[in-house]
Design goal:
The chain is α/β, with parallel strands linked by helices. It has three domains: about 60 residues, no CATH class; about 200 residues, 3-Layer(aba) Sandwich (Rossmann fold); about 80 residues, Rossmann fold. The strands form three sheets. The protein has a six-stranded mixed beta sheet with strand order 4-5-12-9-10-11, sandwiched between helices. A three-stranded antiparallel beta sheet has the order 2-1-3. Helix 5 links the parallel strand 7 and strand 8. Helix 3 packs parallel to helix 4. The longest helix has 16 residues. The chain is globular and about 50 Å long. The structure holds zinc ion. The site of zinc ion has 8 residues, from loops.
Amino acid sequence: MRFFEGYRCGACGFEVEAGSPAGECPACAGPLLCVYDTGAIRRGLPGSARAPKRGGKGVWRFRRLLPDFAEEITLGEGCTPLIPAGRLGETIGMRRLYLKDESANPTGSFKARGMAVAVSRLRALGISTACVPSAGNAGLALAAYGAAALIRCRVFIPSDAPSGVAEECRLYGAEVVSVSGVISDASRALDASVGTDRGGVLSTFREPCRVEGKKTIAFELEDEIEPEWIVFPTGGGTGIVALWKAYRELEAIGALRRPMPRLAVVQAAGCAPLVRAFEEGTDKAKPWKNPATIASGIRVPSSRADMLILKALRESAGAAVSVEDGEIMAAVKEIAGTLGVFSSPEGAAAWAGLKRLVRTEAVSPSARIVIVNTAGGARYRFLLESS
Ligand SMILES: [Zn+2]
């Protein structure tokens, strides 16, 4: 059974057919989102996003709510551990706290889920070269999945990226383009390089399938514990949009019999455009000037999907909070010493942010709460030396 119907622009609603190579909306350049025949799923096999017949593991087990490709590229992404974190939570009166450890994915981060699906789409479209701007994890994931799919990759890395990223991308056979500046400078360099040939561009919200892969975090969490809050470190915002889209789809197929979980965005105090917009009550987020934080994965001054992220927060009765770098480093140590998980600074920001949200009574400590550690900490050991 095929349920994937095509794409719809998240900004203006323009529809694009399923076989199109378009990465963004042809009418307004907004983010394209995948659309499914949720009514057919609901009538046929209600109850879950999983595909009971064809099975499979990890991300592809949820193929009823993924685009269908003849070839599903996989390195074993998904099915990451959900670690009970009561000992961490009890320091602020929380008993039902869990950490979703995305560092168990191939290349060590949640980006693997999205790249598995995005690279499978490129294969289906017959596109042989892919590129992405990245300060780390997205570039590494693309390089690895590109190697697996025999797709040539170009990764545009800003000069403020952690050392070692470029070397590891090259190890997978990717070409590395070093760009002076931050992630938005790398993005501009990529645009200038590809010109009008945008077929292989996998930048955040400039292709529709990275969100689809990341939706499976929500599907797994729903199978596991039905969370009441999900706290997510947020830069470009594919993660938070993916969670929101996943839960909207679970509602549509009749698999969610309670309100969707409340979603919380955590940003760094030195780069918090979405938190500022949420607090000001605006629909869009102004770009952040001079972004500065040790957490390079969330050092993202603007998102192309700011409207969708803010919508996700408001529709889920969610929250947004920013944390200082000092709180992030303290949280890295606290998570490691309490749970035995060496988290990325971004994942640690989620815990630091949750503590603030509980202190300000935005989140009740009695709720069933998940913090998402988006990547492992080993690549960021250099931060420990300077703290
Ligand atoms: Zn549009």
